[in-house]
Specification:
It is a single chain. By secondary structure, this protein is an alpha+beta fold. The chain has 2 domains: 4-219, 3-Layer(aba) Sandwich (Rossmann fold), CATH 3.40.50; 229-363. It is built from 12 helices and 19 strands. The structure holds S-adenosylmethionine (SAM).
Length: 400
Amino acid sequence: MTHLETIGPEALRADMVRALHDQDAITSPSVAAAFTAVPRHLFAPDMPLERAYDLHGIMPVKKDVHGLDISVISAPHLQAVMLEQADIEPGMRVLEIGSGGYNAALIQEIAGSDGEVISLDIDADVIDRARQHLDTAGYTRVKTVVADAETAVVGLGLFDRIIVTVATWDIPPSWIEALTTAGRLVTPLTVCGTTRSVAFKRDGDGLLSLSYRLCSFVPMQGEGAAPDRKIMLRDGVALQTDDPQVPLDAKALDRALAGDRLERWSGAAYDLPDELEWFMTLNLPAPARLHASQDVIDSGLVEASARLGVAALVSADSFAYRTRRPNSATGSAGFESGVVAHGPHAEELAAQYAELLRKWATDYPRRGAATIRYVPGPAPDVLPQGTVRKCHGYVDVTWA
Ligand SMILES: C[S@@+](CC[C@H](N)C(=O)[O-])C[C@H]1O[C@@H](n2cnc3c(N)ncnc32)[C@H](O)[C@@H]1O
């Protein structure tokens, strides 16, 4: 028996809460109390205890036919961050979109005996499982609903808080309309394949961000699923985009990758990669996301920045993406940002990319420099940089 196996769930839970505190994921007494009260292991009884209480560990619930997760119980760290962003108070009416049971139980703890929690999921198997575990853990007051969140929020009444726990490419008007005047929507908003958990307040008919944090979620299913184009350049190298204007020619871009590699250094500090990545994604004129497998990275063909996906600037026959190298002269983080580019227009794309790297490092190298607006309704024909067209409206991101 290992040391961990001899520790009971209460001690593991107390350790988890302490660590979430130390990492600033938990910042309020109410969220700390909820994580202390809810027995997380009861929502994944097959999971070893130490995995159930792993700060960054997800608990798998359901996979698709390709073996990819379509439902998981999210990691405690991310749940804590989002609950803090939501700022739930006792007595509130809260809707959780995307169910698993555990997070709904945390919300019920915070909303208290006068609060009301509805947890909604498109998948009846997920709801059956969540219902069973909620009842076992004593959270019989949480209501569970099987429905597609794209259309099902109409008719559920007004909510003080809506917390979405599935990647959201667009925001249906009914989610905004279901918020009380002082209501808050916390949702993992995806732009060109990269996602931030955004806490929004109402702003007229639309939404205005209060905070945002890097996150990753399983994809939305049903009517609100993200439009996505993905091409494989070769085994282990893919480019994806949700921007219909971006040309994605697999043959031409693989030819570019097989050809010469151009490296240009920005002279600027590489720091806060999640903030930098958000800026690049919103400001590149033709953004896509470059992914490479570990094998391809180990072979030296593509930089390590592409392992979890990196913003790429793409033209019909060339592309450029960011990398970094040690250089303590550029700042305290000890790295300089740079660009790797391939194809006949590599020089031109690298120069454009490097200019943006320098702009971010000079003007916005800090957390929370972006303000995100969601504007419902038709978008103007010509959108300024930083603005992204969606189906129900558009996202407008500005930096200050
Ligand atoms: C990450 S899981 C939810 C985790 C959960 N909140 C927890 O306790 O940690 C995301 C869930 O969203 C659900 N989902 C996907 N598309 C949906 C949709 N259109 N409407 C409602 N639920 C959806 C999936 O079935 C999946 O169970």
